[in-house]
Structures
1.
Amino acid sequence: MKSRIIASLDVLDRQNLLNIASSINDLVFSFKINWPTILSCGKNIVGELSKIGNVILDLKIADIPNTNRMIIEQFKDYDPFGYISHVFPGRDSLMEVVKSADGKKVFAVCAMSNDGAKAFMNRFYKTLIETARDVGVYGIVAPGNDYQLLKEIEAIKGNMKIISPGIGAQGGNQNEAIKNGADYIIVGRTIYQSENPRKTVEDIIKTIEE
Ligand code: BMP
């Protein structure tokens, strides 16, 4: 059975990435890849990975509507499961992401896990969530290492799913994150830097108190 884990495979070597993905696919909800992987391996990697499992493309799209559309069109042939977009450029930009995603899931970043975000975007989480909800995205990204904020976000998120990074390497605990509202936990370095990624995923699953 697939777990609540989204494996953030921020891996630069194509073969290493595909090996890790193949070894854990039956255990994780999806993979997530980010700019470092796309820039290192080329965008074809999205198609290769999609043949193994669900791929969430963490592009953190944050531009004017026309550019957002052009970015998403670059990946249309590769069948990703979904896209991660920023909300802060505004309603029109996010609407264009949802339109261009053409039925694929869109996850909107409403608060971030790094310390610096506390002084900037995390202050505006309510407005960002309202916008994400009005536009009708599938899910939001919210920090799995800030339980108080996660709880507050959980209370106002409506039907949107919460996917939460910040687990493990950034100090967050999977059970606390899930208890406070995370539907899925995003785990990167803890998995892909492990000597045995499959065993690490199995261990995380065992520690999740369902
Ligand atoms: P790690 O578990 O190695 O810290 O990886 C977390 C992943 O989630 C990275 O790809 C990072 O870019 C992403 N991420 C994050 O850490 N915090 C956020 O607020 C939003 C993210 O997308």
2.
Amino acid sequence: MHDFLVIANWKLGGNLDLLSRYKQFFQKVTLSGDLVFLLPTPYLGFWQEGISGASLGAQHLDAYTSGGYTGCVSAEMLQAVGCQYVCLGHSERRCHFQEGDDLIARKYVLAKSYGLVPVLCIGESREARDTRLTESVLRQQIEAVVSRDGFQSLPKHTMVVAYEPVWAIGAKEAASIADVEKVSAFVQSLLAEYGQSARFCYGGSVDADNCLALRRSAFVSGVLVGRASTDYVHFKSIVDRCLVVSN
Ligand code: PGA
């Protein structure tokens, strides 16, 4: 059984002042689980000695390792600035930057081979949900990774899978607990077919009100928090509720 995981995804938001406020606050508290900050790339180097009890992660990784690829970010660079995690397959990357399953799978294997923990995001569109295609979309997104050449030769590991239904991201309401639990059971049984298992996280409009029910669910091992993670007061209360902060 893994500790509960809270992942802050700043997206194209936050600033260095926010990072230092979190650094100051989390110095004073003890966390009962794992906290990860997925910072925008330019801020990664400002993590330095970091936040006690928390880990650094990147929101983006390119599939190249070196050479003439202006603007790209390599796994080695992420490792050099202290990243332990990297977010892959986020629907905003899939949608705005045309990242497909094959590219995401390549990045997954690359990240692992550099010792990074990929947070593999999966999720169906509203249209897929309305036409009852959720499971087939998720199956395709997961199988692209686990059946990829190279995946099977990676050391055995527990995957971190974040279920983020596209229709719940940046929305007013999160998916219902019943839906999340159903998807969790589906994902675990699919992964079992490949001899794998996951720390199953949920993302999509997680806030201080709905995080407790997710925290209490036996089917959910973590949450991925977007907008609320750049709101200092709001995010502190999510961490407080999910990771039982003690002074
Ligand atoms: P949201 O974003 O919490 O703002 O809905 C979640 C995500 O995209 O990771």
